[in-house]
Amino acid sequence: xxxxxxxxxxxxxxxxxxxxxxxxxxxxxxxxxxxxxxxxxxxxxxxxxxxxxxxxxxxxxxxxxxxxxxxxxxxxxxxxxxxxxxxxxxxxxxxxxxxxxxxxxxxxxxxxxxxxxxxxxxxxxxxxxxxxxxxxxxxxxxxxxxxxxxxxxxxxxxxxxxxxxxxxxxxxxxxxxxxxxxxxxxxxxxxxxxxxxxxxxxxxxxxxxxxxxxxxxxxxxxxxxxxxxxxxxxxxxxxxxxxxxxxxxxxxxxxxxxxxxxxxxxxxxxxxxxxxxxxxxxxxxxxxxxxxxxxxxxxxxxxxxxxxxxxxxxxxxxxxxxxxxxxxxxxxxxxxxxxxxxxxxxxxxxxxxxxxxxx
Amino acid sequence: xxxxxxxxxxxxxxxxxxxxxxxxxxxxxxxxxxxxxxxxxxxxxxxxxxxxxxxxxxxxxxxxxxxxxxxxxxxxxxxxxxxxxxxxxxxxxxxxxxxxxxxxxxxxxxxxxxxxxxxxxxxxxxxxxxxxxxxxxxxxxxxxxxxxxxxxxxxxxxxxxxxxxxxxxxxxxxxxxxxxxxxxxxxxxxxxxxxxxxxxxxxxxxxxxxxxxxxxxxxxxxxxxxxxxxxxxxxxxxxxxxxxxxxxxxxxxxxxxxxxxxxxxxxxxxxxxxxxxxxxxxxxxxxxxxxxxxxxxxxxxxxxxxxxxxxxxxxxxxxxxxxxxxx
Lengths: 359, 327
Known about the structure:
The complex is a heterodimer. By secondary structure, chain A is α/β, with parallel strands linked by helices. Helix content of chain A is 44%, strand content 11%.
């Protein structure tokens, strides 16, 4: 009641009625949901929550890996959270997202269920891809998240094709794809950029330049290291942004989305970032200096954004503690969900090869 | 039934045209399919009839446009992607195998890729070692793909229509050698089944299993052998994956002899797969060793006489079968 009155929603002359009050409340909540910024700082705190969730989820994943609950390749997103969160906040739920094998962050930012992701990494039937994919192949068509693609740059042509389809179908949606700077050296990157520009399809190419293609530094893999300049060859509008700064990434992504929707053309956004953890759990990190990692850690996007919100009086220390607790609970739930999940029976091995289940 | 004379090229074109008329989601994209009229003139006139939205010329980016076809299929369209020759398809192999054939499985059954990739293959025009191969077995090796071989005019006319209804990716092989060949087909020929092999000619003495360019050559050989008193049962595999084995196993159980004819290279070809299944399932029905006539293991050479010598010809089939029959 206090809540409703405080919002000034109900006139003083109205009398409470147990029958219609829930109805009024529902209408009110729908109205609130339509207005994206529900209260000062709520959207900002939500983005912070997503970054913190990704960080903690990845730490937990590493822990579960050492317990051998997660096997295979595990690529952690720690350090790069501002990119997934900053870009995804600019998209609508209907927009398509395609990602790489380092995609837990993008999946979480697109609101994939954390339990379904953890269960997938365990290889359980309850995983988002029924356990068939694992860490590198998270899929959820219901939220328009199309992988989890582990051939470097292999998803870029598909991305253009999905955008081509939405253009033909006259749907007002964007296809967004994340890839690393390693992918920008592949032929498929260049073919996809040319096709997207040629066909003028609504694609947002997001290059997460974390400076290392596995263990080989940018300077050893690209003759021209200002990656955004590659957009020029295809007359694709491009911009490079500090990928360690959520505010900068969000603004750049919002501008990019606006540009795509206004001009019906693709856009190339380069986010310069850094992964704090090794390439995968197998990586001994012989190729980079510990000092370099420490220097980059000073640019950690999470404390930076926390401090920004505190300065703006949109966040309190207490709220951070509450968020941490909430995240801890969510991750605990995800781990329990994965632990309690089931193994697909071996008799079902040949499922999902053909739609009609032909042998 | 009213019959009409038609080239293999015309049959392919009529199939594509009907597909475009049937379903607005269908579009054709490939190198030179529009303004040029198709590298082999299969799509000539379609750009003028259907417009550039549905007949899309693409740059020389096989991986790019095949991948775009996969993406478009995932997002609700029904693309027909033409790869000019099977040799160029290797540039798109990553998309075909790592994506098209894999997405349904990798996503736990969530994502279908209903696209058809058409590709010309085989010898016939002295195009030498980078434009002439028969690589159906490469694709038939991959679970997740449906692999079709249009060895007759009616299949050239009708396989595409059924393929476009498949929820899974289809590779459709067409044969350069046959493009100008005229045959009679039913005037109302339309969609063809894409699940079963076909007995193209009944016979009691020996089973000849073939596909693609082998079909007409085998029928020609069977005709000649019939005049010599040998009745050959000719089976056109048509679907190389998932393979319909019942049809040829039943035939072998009847004739007790089998020969496979194919243009693809001998080692690891379709013949090896067909033989394995015969040995596994009907070994005790056999009265004679299995034989195969396959492509000679050499990159296809340029001169006509060497090109012809690199794949089995109708006379090779006749002499092999005579030997198998002890004549």
